[in-house]
């Protein structure tokens, strides 16, 4: 195992006696990751999490293979600092909800094997695009000596007393999942506010800065022990951490405005009765007096020889047409009245609009594929290719947005642009690349 260059960030990851990055030639290619040294008599018990430590031939030294390089990872503390240092709410939202969801899944995995979250801190949780690593989880286990960082804990207020509890519960009855939920809510609060403390900020404090008071009530209830992990997971799905910055939208607003169950039954009964009476009246009058109206005629087709049909001909004849070529054909159709001084009919406008919707459907799928590649543990080279692809996709989408007669896709395109903007906080990429996202 050969040590890579000393990385100042790596040295401060976790609370080990010593932490370094390594790379070595393995049977299946280049292997790289972390190795650490711990104090004597500090033992380790690995969990079933994807990334755990493995013993080396040297006593008290362990190693952990990891995908990527130091620049691909950030501690939870670094992520919180990034979130609080930007004014871009949409960039913060994408990052927050992704990290929060993955932390919750980590807790579930541990509970399935009757383990507890343990002595986590903002500096010993490591995050990349495809991984969350608990650097100190499993140290120590039945050892005679506890690690020094547990004797003088840097983030003691996050933990549940006693501060020297071990990182594994031996029996199912040894742990209460609500204790881990309390720790989880404190980590969430730290991501939102930079406060790493035992209590959730009061309603008055949170209302001064939040756009979703209900989110903070959920966090407070969970930290007080009045919710189970499953109940909190449902709450978090309805009101994710991003609502602190963006406010509740869509289904969250709908849930807020829903009537009480009792009133709902009354309303549903009244509406059903009105519909029934209205249907009877309609049937009695219209069916008895007037014959049913004929179905609306189908929209007339665009003449084959029209200039619009000719401009769109490449789309229909070329099954391998690229998004850019598709756009160029649509743009040519839109420019027909300008270039040939002819009046475009309503039918031709409808045809153009349908082609735009089909083009956006194909574009959206390609955009999602590129974004997925970026966030599923892609290598550095694949990530850069994905970034270039995303930038090209956004450029094409903006041209479609300008061409869109009814502006049907404006919100979809804006959402995709916001997702790309969120990458400004992704330190896998050099600052020059991240700064280039500002142009979006």
Descriptive account of the structure:
By secondary structure, the protein is of the alpha+beta class. It has 19 helices and eight strands. The chain has helices at 8-11, 76-85, 89-112, 148-151, 177-193, 203-209, 213-223, 229-238, 243-246, 251-257, 261-289, 307-311, 313-317, 323-334, 336-340, 346-374, 380-403, 410-421, 431-436, and strands at residues 2-3, 18-26, 29-37, 54-55, 61-65, 74-75, 125-127, 132-134. The strands form two sheets. The chain has a five-stranded antiparallel beta sheet, with no helix packed on it. The chain has a three-stranded antiparallel beta sheet with strand order 6-7-8. β4 (54-55) and β5 form a beta hairpin.
Whole-Å distance between the termini? Answer: 43 Å
Low-confidence stretches: 1-6, 251-267, 280-291, 297-302
Number of helices: 19
Instruction: Based on the coordinates given, report the CATH architecture of the largest domain.
Output: Orthogonal Bundle
| Beta content | 5-15%
Mean pLDDT rating: 73
Largest sheet: number of strands, sense, barrel closure = 5 strands, antiparallel
CATH class of the largest domain: Mainly Alpha
CA radius of gyration is 29 Å
Classify the secondary structure makeup into a structural class. alpha+beta
Can I get a quick summary?
By secondary structure, the chain is an alpha+beta fold. Helices cover 51% and strands 8% of the residues. It contains 19 helices and 8 strands.
């Amino acid at each position: 195992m050969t040590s890579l260059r000393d990385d100042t960030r790596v040295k401060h990851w976790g609370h080990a006696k010593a932490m370094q990055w390594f790379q070595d030639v393995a049977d299946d290619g280049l292997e790289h990751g972390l190795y650490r040294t711990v104090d004597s008599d500090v033992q380790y018990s690995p969990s079933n999490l994807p990334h755990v430590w493995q013993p080396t031939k040297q006593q008290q030294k362990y190693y952990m293979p990891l995908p990527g390089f130091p620049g691909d990872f950030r501690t939870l503390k670094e992520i919180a600092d990034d979130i609080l240092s930007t004014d871009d709410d949409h960039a913060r939202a994408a990052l927050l909800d992704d990290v929060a969801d993955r932390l919750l899944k980590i807790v579930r995995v541990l509970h399935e094997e009757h383990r507890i979250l343990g002595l986590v801190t903002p500096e010993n949780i490591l995050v990349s695009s495809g991984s969350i690593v608990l650097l100190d989880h499993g140290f120590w286990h039945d050892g005679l000596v506890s690690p020094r960082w547990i004797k003088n804990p840097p983030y003691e207020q996050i933990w549940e007393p006693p501060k020297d509890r071990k990182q594994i519960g031996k029996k199912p009855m040894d742990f209460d999942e609500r204790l881990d939920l309390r720790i989880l809510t404190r980590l969430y609060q730290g991501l939102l506010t930079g406060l790493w403390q035992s209590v959730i900020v009061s309603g008055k404090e949170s209302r001064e800065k939040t756009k979703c008071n209900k989110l903070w009530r959920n966090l407070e209830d969970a930290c007080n022990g009045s919710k189970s992990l499953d109940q909190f997971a449902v709450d978090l799905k309805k009101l994710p951490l991003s609502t602190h910055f963006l406010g509740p939208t869509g289904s969250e607003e709908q849930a807020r405005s829903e009537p009480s169950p009792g009133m709902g039954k009354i309303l549903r009964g009244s509406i059903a009765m009105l519909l029934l009476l209205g249907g009877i009246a309609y049937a009695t009058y219209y069916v008895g007096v007037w014959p049913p109206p004929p179905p609306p005629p189908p929209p007339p087709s665009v003449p084959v020889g029209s200039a619009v049909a000719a401009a769109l001909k490449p789309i229909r004849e070329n099954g391998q047409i690229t998004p850019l070529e598709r756009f160029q054909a649509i743009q040519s159709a839109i420019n027909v009245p300008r270039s040939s001084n002819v009046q475009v009919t309503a039918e031709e406008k409808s045809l153009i609009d349908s082609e735009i919707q089909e083009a956006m459907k194909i574009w959206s799928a390609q955009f999602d594929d590129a974004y997925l590649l970026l966030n599923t543990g892609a290598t550095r080279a694949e990530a850069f290719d994905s970034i270039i692809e995303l930038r090209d996709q956004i450029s094409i989408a903006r041209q479609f947005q300008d061409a869109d007669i009814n502006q049907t896709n404006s919100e979809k395109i804006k959402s995709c642009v916001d997702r790309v903007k969120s990458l400004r906080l992704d330190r896998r990429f050099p600052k020059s690349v991240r700064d280039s996202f500002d142009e979006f």
